[in-house]
């Protein structure tokens, strides 16, 4: 069985949990702390030398790190419930949207960045919070516009009638923003898509507060 090194608060692991659930792939969760100094965390460096979560253990000589690499692997290995739909143009739009979350938003608000601002740059809490919110709005504004530009159709989800990679990447970002109390009022389409996703079992079972380690601290 696949093993996912995960933490309930990890946005990147959240994406992978949704994809595994949606595709109906059984996996074992290996709950791994985000505290960079714990013994457990040091042992984790043997699994993923970068020390970041998630990593997917497939077999002894295949442990995949980086959520986008894991998502691509899952898409190729389990194509029956695809997360990329439609023609080449639609698939490109889905990938572009997903990258706003994966490449341009999450890395700026990652724990190690926020910790660095706190510990090395002496940035106080209210300024770190302003940083966090700034990058969330910098993503959600354009994401909302991209969703609003769509041609009319029966789109419960981001671009399609079924969940896609775009939804897989949007939902953890919204979930994190909600946890931090970010005002999502300006983003009605994002909120609608989020509600549609969260009505599905695959998304519910991947949510941070339903994970076995949900009582564990983030850091
Ligand atoms: N680009 C990586 C990012 C992984 C990542 O940054 N994971 C976070 C949790 S979401 C982490 O392990 N943070 C620990 C830290 O920042 O020290 C991916 O998509 O997998």
UniProtKB/TrEMBL annotation:
Occurrences of domain GST N-terminal (ranges): 1-82
Residues covered by the GST C-terminal domain: 87-218
Q: Is Isomerase set as a keyword in this record?
A: yes
PROSITE patterns in UniProt: GST_CTER (PS50405), GST_NTER (PS50404)
Single biological process term from Gene Ontology: glutathione metabolic process
Report the SUPFAM superfamilies cross-referenced here. Answer: GST C-terminal domain-like (SSF47616), Thioredoxin-like (SSF52833)
Q: Highest taxon of the source?
A: Bacteria
* Single GO MF descriptor: maleylacetoacetate isomerase activity
Q: Which GO terms describe its cellular component?
A: cytoplasm
Keyword Cytoplasm listed? no
Q: Which UniProt keywords are given for this protein, alphabetically ordered?
A: Isomerase
**CDD domains, alphabetized:** GST_C_Zeta (cd03191)
Using the record, list the residue span of the signal peptide; answer none if the entry has no such feature. Answer: none
Family statement drawn from the similarity comment of this UniProt entry:
Belongs to the GST superfamily. Zeta family.
Name the NCBIfam families for this protein. maiA (TIGR01262)
- The identity of this protein, by name, is Maleylacetoacetate isomerase (MAAI)
- Give the species this sequence originates from: Salinisphaera hydrothermalis (strain C41B8)
Q: What is the lineage of its organism?
A: Bacteria, Pseudomonadati, Pseudomonadota, Gammaproteobacteria, Salinisphaerales
